[in-house]
Amino acid sequence: MASDRDRTAVIGGGIVGIATALALAERGHAPVVMEAEDGLARHQTGHNSGVIHSGLYYKPGSLKARMCRAGLEAMYRFCAEEGVPTRRCGKLVVAVRADELPRLATLEERGRANGVTLMRLAPAEIKEHEPEVVGVAGLWVDETGVVDYSLVTEAMARRLVRLGGEVRTGHRVASIVRDGGSFVIGTAAGEIRASRLVNCAGLQSDRVARLAGLQPGVRIVPFRGEYYVLRADRRDLVRGLIYPVPDPALPFLGVHFTRGIDDVVEAGPNAVLALRREGYSWGDISITDIADWAAFPGFWRMARAQWRNGLGEIRRSLSRARFLKSLQTLMPALRDDDIERGGSGVRAQAVGVDGRLIDDFFIQSGPGMLHVLNAPSPAATASLAIGLEVANRLIAADSA
Questions:
Q1: Maximum Cα–Cα distance for the chain, whole Å?
Q2: Looking at the DSSP assignment, which residues form a beta bridge with residue 10?
């Protein structure tokens, strides 16, 4: 392990934090990773639907587009090297109404600009891929796949340790103090000193940034996505991945179907405001977390702009019939007894002071430190590319 004067501390043991630590270790700067929970990948990574994205949706030239494309093949390659199962099942994006065709065309243009290999489908061709889906046109993306990102994170951590890095769980960060050229990081399990700091704390990333003396100008607002799953005897309704044409005004992909690497078929999610940063149900409530986003002016600006969408999501969350109806838009044959309640996940969505939902990956820097402040989907797919980007920036700043 490097001395405190040449040591990097990475805060966060999700897939982005571990991938960043691995990239540093591969460049001779083996770091120490601090994770608040008693295991890795306990939040966004562990509640991920497991899709290896192709880069179809993202604005050409954006960090999301570049890193998703770079991360796609890097993820398949890493999993092959480490023996983590993957499946290239392909993805179908469906326009169910004629008024969605212009958006589908825009999506096709964006995907091709990003280097995604696409095939435009007529209604009969849609059924060749997914017989139960009804639509007026579609896009087929062959390279999209699925994996278990918790297993990927564990494999990354094993490789990191082989290269000399450390992973410390149960190290929730409570304070960060400058002491000369070092950071003194106070955790629930004692102090750690380091000369460089990387913040990949996900749902707590803005708080960690403020502890480190940075005013990030964004606030993490948690959105919970709730899923249903298809009953085991009805999983044959879905062969792979089925998505609607997304709403360009929102950074969410809409309710969709995902056959995971374990062959469980998830249906969802919706997107409701979570009442706790790690709030996986309506009963998970934190007054501190509510007060945090309620005191942020950008939250209320966002709420004024998005209240109709938010109200619709809440209604769908509370009504099984509404949720089913949204699923039947893609698959009319689906019936109420085909689905049952599944799990949920919480997205760490950065919101700007102006109320804007930050749509791209967002990384801020300070003296000796980097903060990953917005890394929603496709961050898991892009994790190896994000890690490389952060490591390169940190090393470049070190040598400047």
A1: 67
A2: 33, 198
Query: Strand 91-95 and strand 137-141: pairing?
Result: antiparallel
CA dihedral (281, 282, 283, 286) positive or negative: positive
Q: Per-residue pLDDT tens for 284-325?
A: 999 999 999 999 999 999 999 988 888 888 898 999 999 999
Burial-class residue 142 by CB neighbours within 10 Å (0-12, 13-18, 19+).
Answer: middle
Length of the chain: 400
Among residues of the chain, what percentage have pLDDT more than 90?
87
Q: Bridge partners of 219?
A: 351
Q: Is 244 exposed, middle or buried (0-12, 13-18, 19+ CB in 10 A)?
A: buried
pLDDT tens-digit readout, 20-51: 999 999 999 999 999 999 999 999 999 998 99
For residue 396 the two structure tokens come to 């470049």
For 372, the enclosing helix (H) or strand (E) is strand 369-374
Average pLDDT over residues 259-277: 94
Strand partners, 197: 9, 369
Q: Which of 400, 298, 315 is nearest to 358 (CA)?
A: 298
CA 160, distance to chain mean position in Å, is 21
Amino acid making up residue 260: G
Structure tokens at 297: 């002016």
Distances (CA, A) of 212 to 118, 198, 208, 391: 44, 10, 6, 19
Quote the tokens at residue 205: 């990333």
Single-letter amino acid code for the residue at 268: G
pTM of structure: 0.94
Q: What is the mean pLDDT of residues 55-68?
A: 92
CA distance 356 to 305: 9
Instruction: Give me the helix-helix angle, 379-399 and 15-26, nearest 10°.
Output: 40
Structure tokens of 164? Answer: 């000399």
Which residue, chain included where needed, has tokens 């997205």?
Answer: 347
Contact 361, 372 (CB under 8 A): yes
DSSP code at position 243: E
